[in-house]
Amino acid sequence: MKLPERHVLSKSTFIKGVQCTKALYLNKHHKEFKEEPDAAQMAIFAQGTSVGELAQQLFPGGVDCSPESYYNFQEAVVRTQAEIEKGTKIIYEAAFQFNGVLAALDILVKDRGGWKAYEVKSSTSISETYLLDATIQYYAITNSGLPLKDISIVYINNQYEKNGPLDVHELFAIESVRADVLELLPGIPGKVEELKKVLNQKTVPKVDIGPHCSNPYTCDFQGHCWKNIPENSVFTIARLTEAKKFELYNQKVVAFKDIPDDAPLNDNQWMQVESELNNTTSIDKKKLKEFIKDLQYPLYFLDFETFGTAVPVFDKSRPYQQLVFQYSLHCLPTAKGKLIHSEFLAEANGSDPRSLFVEKLIAECGTEGDILVYNIGFERGKLNELVLQFPKYKTRLNNIISRLKDLMIPFQQRWYYTPSMQGSYSIKKVLPALVPEMSYDDLEIQEGGTASTLFAAMMIGIFTGDTEKVRKDLLDYCRMDTMAMVEIYRKVKGVCS
Q1: Strand-pair category, 90-98 with 63-64
Q2: Which secondary structure element, helix H or strand E, spans residue 301, and what is its range?
Q3: What is the pTM assigned to this prediction?
Q4: CATH 3.30.420.10 domain locations along the chain
Q5: What is the CATH number of domain 9-199?
Q6: For 155-186, what is each residue's pLDDT tens digit?
Q7: What are the distances in angstroms from CA 455 to CA 38, 356, 440?
Q8: Per-residue pLDDT tens over the stretch 38-77
Q9: Which H helix or E strand runs over 150?
Q10: CATH label, 286-496, candidates 1.10.10.10, 2.60.40.10, 2.40.170.20, 3.30.420.10
Q11: Distance CA 490, CA 216 (A)
């Protein structure tokens, strides 16, 4: 069979084009503007691939029609057709092409005289985008000459709790979306032709920034399209809805200086704007003194890191459940005592780290003194989970929980606010505002999401980078979080004296 011509649209570029025609065009003609995925994003992609491969166990014994080269999907189209003609009943990565549209399906099954299509997602629910995804698949497959009895989305059942060997039939949920697909199908041919015309244009489509820049996916051309938006703009106003931000933007209100007096901002948002415009700092010494006075030595500064995987690794854990794997702990024994640091980072060897985490934490937190965290709901929530998981440590874990205090409160309540906080009380904004000589910028890992993703990838064996380097980066990051808390505390205490 002769190889078909190279496709014009794939399933992913079709979805990209529906989200934004400009992104579609740039993706083909100006890849130099594209932001390359970092290690954490690559790890997320790898986890999605591993979920797809695991789902094949739902329909074992199939033939894989993946192309030998990533770019040679036309070869996969030919191989798929050959397997269908041969009578193969289960095909993985079945590829079809019609009218320049390529669709690579995760699993194709012949069942009771009819073909069924299965598209696998590592998500825990079915989104509108997934339905559109399934529809473009259905369009390409059925118009290629293969009638489909049904089309379903396979996704993660987040209620599944692993106990013993992994049960793929419990882990995955399968839901037919044929009715939704048939409803969307009439709009597909016209959209395909529209996107083809976009790709053949000589100039970049004139599409302004908007909610589509991050919905349903964060666009990898955002840096290019948003380059003229100033650092302090309506888009940085804290807790202002996206709709209101773009309402202002569409009225040509972008910079803070352009915001009219009747803009729909609350008191805290006006505080952010006026603080920036006037370069003013607000400090409520009375409230800060009360906060500091209430703290009891020895004073601890604690931060957790967690990870979650689509496929649960340990018994008594669920998909995407955030499990502790690391902490950093600084301790000031007395007001003038020497700062002590301890830490824990689990081995990414497939074994459950939680028991050792708990034992070490209990030993190092002692039984007296307050324990400062930043955003108490997170650490308290994880500790309460550990109480349920390890009832023999209940008394000592509850002791730690009872001693938690939230260092975020003074900034959340605006008892201390500077323009450089940009309306945020995140530690990533508070630290450089109060302690400019300290910064996360020099760290390889700069936020918790990256730490979580990289450790998860190592734990499930899909990480391909330098493991020892990442472990060092993880320790550096978590240590920075608690050291930042120490310095913020010292700064607040100094303001009060």
Answers
A1: parallel
A2: strand 299-307
A3: 0.91
A4: 286-496
A5: 3.90.320.10
A6: 999 999 999 999 999 999 999 999 999 999 99
A7: 14, 17, 19
A8: 878 888 888 889 999 999 999 999 999 998 876 789 999 9
A9: strand 148-156
A10: 3.30.420.10
A11: 42
